[in-house]
Specification:
The complex is a heterodimer. By secondary structure, chain A is mainly α. Chain A has two domains: about 30 residues; about 90 residues, Cytochrome Bc1 Complex, Chain D, domain 2 (Orthogonal Bundle), CATH 1.10.760.10. Chain A is built from five helices and four strands. Chain A has a two-stranded antiparallel ribbon. Chain A has a two-stranded antiparallel ribbon with strand order 3-4. In chain A, helix 3 packs across helix 5. By secondary structure, chain B is mainly alpha-helical. In chain B, about 80% of the residues lie in helices and about 0% in strands. In chain B, helix 1 packs antiparallel against helix 2 and helix 13 runs antiparallel to helix 14. Chain B is globular, with a radius of gyration of 21 Å. Chains A and B meet through helix 1, helix 2, helix 3, strand 1 and strand 2 of A and helix 2, helix 5, helix 7, helix 8 and helix 9 of B.
């Protein structure tokens, strides 16, 4: 393969990649239409990261494997805000008690409430199309 | 000490990082199945220790290889030896800071490779230095680069790109929108892995050529087309990580289509096997060659799995389960570690004049089999656990606790096989590590 062909193909790919990246960054997300993250929820996100909740928990099936997916813990039947608060406050045999104060826990709840509104995980309702693609949660 | 042995210093430290990563990984696995184990170093500290040390192994050994091969085999003396040493010291210092931050409970809290964000700055700087040194060095060689030189350059370039991208979350535009944040994070993670794959696969081609003494391999049309196909997938084929995230539909479709082009790679592997099987028997006694053969088989297994989980209809059941872990571990250990060990054996052999004693050689060879067989058990356990979890949650609508109770026995077997694998790797790694130390002390 001549050098110039390699250079052209590489250059073409890279420029396409830059344009593509721009479109990914600016593509629609469900939360555009709904409410934005409150400052309280933003603080909650920071606490979530600082305590490495991701090492055990997932959002949208991404993260750790020891604990349950927390995307919809706020709206799940039999769970919800009070349950979540109590669990974070006490910890369990597997989940440490992080000794967070009331304010921090409220922020975490605000964050989880926000996440809950953005979508559904794990996928329970779905339909599979003949091309192998899937309609999620419809 | 490292003045004349820059490449060797990198890979020696890499081998140590590998052993450290395996140690913390083993503890984490124990804690996963037997809660309460070693509470003084809890799981949420062990997990990032494990991940970061293994990532360090990948970078140290692939970068060390490049530093070693350029002057010694490619006829391109480093543009700046000094910058290379500086790179090494930044790496060591940042590594120590990252490890300490975990011990003190300071995290970055990302889903995958995480550490306090401020430490991304020295990492970024060290790669700028490395990239500058690399390109200054290779631009002095003939313009008609073999494919591995392209791959190394691409790996460095895209590391910088995607590493930056993976920190876009610090901007409110990304951070305050969870769907966008996750989407961009996994776009970056996918390409980050793709960028180190470029470094590693380039190394594999280089070592294979040297063993075979056939310098045309890295200049064929097929070699370049394969590289470009890999690059296309690095850029656009990452979205299987986020199929279920409510991001824009077109991102999913495009990625699905691009991912399927990897079928060509699969076909190529099978085709190559037909012609090289008898040859591989001939060279199997060469230690580094042996690891490349194992990597080849693991590439086949992992590529098949990757293709399967890139189909949304399959991904639906595997996403968020241990099948994803099987994919990650299979590639990290079966492919990357095998190739990088091949490279380490090659370099340590070349850098030192002493041969292995018969006892050492026996240990390495038995370790090799223990390593590979236990890895297979490890991998299969994760597939079974993942399938049970996926079907349990998506089809049978079981609760998380019910699923975990169901898969715990298989995860115990998984943990056990992990320990045996650790033993196998120790047998493989200790003899060359001893040789490398002796050389560095000279």
């Amino acid at each position: 393969m001549p050098l110039i062909a390699k250079q052209i193909y590489f250059g073409f790919l890279f420029i396409t990649f830059c344009i593509y990246s721009f479109f990914v960054y600016t593509s629609d997300t469900p939360s555009d239409a709904k409410e934005l993250m409150t400052t309280d929820a933003q603080a909650g996100k920071v606490i979530y990261q600082q305590n490495n909740c991701f090492s055990c928990h997932q959002l949208y099936g991404l993260g750790g494997y020891m604990g349950p997916d927390l995307t919809n813990v706020i709206s799940a039947p039999g769970k919800g805000e009070i349950y979540t608060k109590a669990l974070i406050m006490s910890g369990t045999q597997k989940m440490p008690n992080f000794h967070l104060n009331e304010q921090e826990i409220n922020s975490l709840i605000a964050y989880l409430k926000y996440v809950d509104k953005t979508g559904v995980s794990p996928t329970i309702k779905y339909s599979i199309n003949s091309d192998g693609s899937v309609n999620y949660n419809q | 000490m490292i003045k004349k042995n820059l490449g060797l210093a990198f890979i020696t430290l890499g081998l140590i990082a590998l052993l450290g990563g395996l140690l913390f990984g083993s503890i984490a696995a124990l804690q996963f199945v037997f809660p309460g184990t070693l509470d003084s170093l809890p799981f949420f500290k062990n997990r990032p220790l494990h991940v970061s040390l293994v990532v360090a192994w990948v970078f140290l050994s692939s970068v060390g290889g490049i530093y070693y091969y350029l002057p010694k085999f490619i006829g391109a003396p480093l543009y700046s030896e000094r910058a290379g040493r500086f790179h090494f010291y930044i790496f060591v210092l940042t590594g120590i800071l990252i490890i300490f931050s975990y011990f003190f409970g300071k995290f970055g809290g990302r889903e995958y490779w995480e550490f306090p964000p401020i430490l991304a700055i020295p990492i970024f700087i060290s790669w700028i230095i490395f990239g500058w040194n690399y390109f200054k060095t290779v631009f002095t060689t003939a313009k008609n680069w073999p494919v591995y030189q392209w791959m190394w350059g691409t790996g460095i370039f895209f590391f910088l790109f995607t590493f930056t991208e993976s920190y876009l979350w610090v901007l409110p535009y990304f951070r305050n929108n969870v769907v966008r944040e996750i989407t961009v994070q996994w776009k970056a993670n996918g390409a980050l892995v793709g960028s180190w794959n470029m470094l590693i696969y380039g190394t594999a081609i280089f070592v294979m050529e040297k063993i075979k003494g056939d310098h045309s391999m890295s200049r064929t049309k097929i070699a370049f087309l394969t590289y470009l196909l890999g690059l296309t997938n690095l850029m656009f084929g990452w979205a299987h990580h986020i199929y279920n995230v409510p991001a824009a539909q077109w991102i999913r479709y495009l990625s699905y289509i691009i991912s399927m082009t990897e079928l060509i790679l699969l076909a190529k592997i099978i085709w190559n096997w037909k012609s090289t099987l008898s040859e591989s028997k001939k060279d199997f006694h060469i230690l580094s060659y042996r690891f490349l053969v194992a990597a080849d088989i693991w590439i086949f297994i992992n590529l098949t799995l990757a293709l399967a989980i890139s189909i949304p209809a399959v991904n639906l059941f595997t996403h968020g389960t241990h099948i994803t872990v099987a994919h990650a571990m299979g590639s990290m250990i079966g492919i990357n570690t095998m190739i990088l060990l091949a490279s380490c054996f090659f370099i340590i052999n070349d850098a030192t004049d002493k041969n292995y004693t018969t006892g050492e050689e026996k240990t390495i060879k038995s370790g090799y089999w223990i390593f590979n067989i236990s890895l297979l058990v490890f991998f299969v356990c994760l597939i079974i656990a993942g399938a049970e979890k996926g079907i349990g949650i998506v089809v049978d609508k079981l609760s998380f606790a019910e699923v975990m109770a169901k898969i715990n026995p298989i995860l115990i077997v998984f943990t056990f096989s992990g320990f045996i694998m650790f033993a196998g790797i120790l047998m493989v790694v200790i003899p060359p590590l001893k040789k490398a130390f002796a050389q560095l002390r000279k």
